[in-house]
């Protein structure tokens, strides 16, 4: 799998022990296990009868790179874009309670998806509904976006593991419930005081930020070593044995898998320091290995060097090597917001209103999540945001969740949006230059993944925006009650 370039392998290897512990304690498919991102699920697939199909990723009618309901009874909810497992898990938990069933529900999220607002919306609602739900936060060194400081992670030591076991134990949980019952009998004032003492005490026991989860209504346990199966099994067994626990968040820290081969070490992070930003005018010399991403970043770099007002906003996607190099060269012009597409669009709109020229770089399939912001915050106000829609069209081995065939349709119906789609890499570079010059309305251009066509032309020009033709209306197409209005108007 490494030789075939699966970028998700590193994430799945770091979560092997956690996956084994979850399947040891919980009894899928009776118990429901939801995974927030497909790159965590390889070990899960192997343990649930799909080992012989692991080499068929990306092939037609074979194994999906994400969980899929139609693929296995062990996949109660399909994953893909991330950030959805708590919402879906809460839905399964509430449905279980209404139907009087007894299965347990586990939602596994990652530190990457905690940049999404949906995660906190779901946690807040889970705290309010108080249904039994276990949320496991897999806080891993592995991330789609490299961290500035590897030492910023919460340390794991014997004390934190011991505290996690104590927090999840039956005796502590029961003592806490008894204490709450006693304080309720002593009046509202004392009860509220005791609740605050409990909250602050647990905040002191846990790492920085643990009180946030408690404020949302989740009982926080952690951090615990996510690569220690014995500790994981101990805590998971304690949590699963409680019949009325409400929503619980278990914080586990997992280590990144270190690369052992040259291919594994050829990651964007390791290559970025020694790789120059490609120049679109000279890329044709080695065209066999150049991608549309190379051309886009090369053309964008040329515009950034010419115009100090151009900035980039990067959302919801894996950092490809050219973007790593771009960030190294223009750190003050590059904003990586993580899996927060809605924020990325409105943030870009704010940058534009402040006098800058933002290029909002989002994969086509993830732009779907931010369409309300595109309509309301950008197009309605004619804010000049430049959308670079990556991974457009059919993307092959990524499967249906990675394909982006809809952006032309949902962007071209907007009244103020200019939509561009290049036929080759030279047109793509020219469209970047054109977009940089448009200041009176939003514009978008799309480009696919993969190797370029191979056109040997200069890219130092723009594409004029003009009306191709005009004609009188010869036919009226209407829907529902609009027919008479159209007839009266014309």
From TrEMBL:
Q: Which BP terms in the Gene Ontology apply to this protein?
A: terpenoid biosynthetic process
Q: Which InterPro entries match?
A: Dxylulose-5-P_synthase, THDP-binding, Transketolase-like_Pyr-bd
Q: Where is the Transketolase-like pyrimidine-binding domain?
A: 290-455
- SUPFAM superfamilies referenced in this protein's UniProt entry, alphabetically: Thiamin diphosphate-binding fold (THDP-binding)
Q: What GO annotations for molecular function exist for this entry?
A: 1-deoxy-D-xylulose-5-phosphate synthase activity
What Pfam families does the annotation carry? DXP_synthase_N (PF13292), Transket_pyr (PF02779)
Q: Does the keyword Transferase apply?
A: yes
Gene3D superfamilies recorded? 3.40.50.970
Q: Which cofactor does it need?
A: Mg(2+); thiamine diphosphate
Q: Which UniProt keywords apply?
A: Magnesium, Thiamine pyrophosphate, Transferase
Is-annotated flag, keyword Magnesium? Answer: yes
Q: How does it assemble?
A: Homodimer.
Protein name, UniProt field: Transketolase-like pyrimidine-binding domain-containing protein
């Amino acid at each position: 799998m490494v030789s075939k370039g699966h970028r998700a392998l590193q994430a799945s290897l770091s979560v092997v022990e956690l996956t084994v512990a979850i399947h040891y304690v919980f009894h899928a498919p009776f118990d429901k296990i939801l995974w927030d991102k497909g790159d965590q699920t390889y070990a899960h697939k192997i343990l649930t009868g799909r080992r012989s199909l692991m080499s068929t990723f990306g092939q037609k009618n074979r194994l999906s790179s994400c969980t899929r309901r139609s693929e296995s009874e062990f996949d109660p909810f399909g994953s893909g874009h991330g950030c959805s497992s708590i919402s879906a898990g809460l839905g399964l938990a509430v449905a279980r309670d209404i139907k009087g069933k007894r299965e347990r529900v586990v939602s596994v999220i990652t530190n990457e998806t905690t940049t999404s607002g949906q995660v906190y919306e779901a946690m807040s609602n889970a705290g309010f509904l108080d249904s039994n739900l276990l949320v496991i936060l897999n806080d891993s060194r592995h991330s789609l976006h490299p961290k500035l400081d590897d030492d910023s992670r919460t340390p794991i030591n014997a004390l934190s593991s011991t505290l996690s076991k104590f927090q999840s134990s039956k005796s502590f949980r029961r003592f806490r419930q008894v204490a709450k019952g006693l304080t309720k009998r002593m009046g509202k004032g004392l009860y509220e005081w005791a609740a605050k003492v409990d909250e602050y005490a647990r905040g002191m026991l846990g790492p920085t930020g643990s009180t946030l989860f408690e404020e949302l209504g989740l009982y926080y346990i952690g951090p615990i070593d996510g690569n220690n199966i014995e500790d994981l099994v101990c805590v998971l067994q304690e949590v699963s044995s409680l019949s009325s626990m409400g929503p619980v968040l278990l914080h586990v820290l997992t280590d990144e898998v270190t690369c052992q081969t040259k291919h594994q070490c050829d990651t964007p992070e390791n290559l970025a320091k020694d790789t120059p930003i490609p120049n679109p005018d000279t890329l044709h010399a080695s065209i066999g290995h150049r991608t549309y991403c190379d051309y886009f970043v090369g053309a964008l770099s040329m515009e950034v060097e010419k115009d100090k007002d151009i900035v980039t906003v990067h959302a919801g996607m894996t950092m490809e090597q050219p973007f790593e190099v771009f960030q190294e060269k223009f750190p003050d012009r590059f904003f990586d917001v993580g899996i927060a597409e809605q924020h990325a669009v409105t943030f870009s709109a704010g940058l534009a209103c402040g006098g800058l020229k933002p290029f909002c770089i989002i994969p086509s399939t993830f732009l779907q999540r931010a369409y309300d912001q595109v309509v309301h915050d950008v197009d309605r106000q004619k804010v000049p945001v430049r959308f670079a829609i990556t991974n457009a069209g059919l993307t092959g081995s990524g499967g249906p969740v990675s394909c982006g065939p809809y952006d032309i349709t949902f962007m071209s119906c907007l009244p103020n949006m200019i939509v561009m789609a290049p036929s080759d890499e030279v047109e793509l570079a020219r469209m970047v230059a054109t977009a940089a010059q448009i200041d009176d309305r939003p514009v978008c251009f799309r480009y696919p993944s993969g190797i370029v066509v191979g056109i040997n032309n200069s890219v130092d020009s723009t594409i004029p925006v003009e009306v191709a033709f005009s004609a009188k209306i010869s036919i009226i197409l209407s829907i529902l009650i609009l027919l008479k209005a159209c007839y009266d108007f014309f």
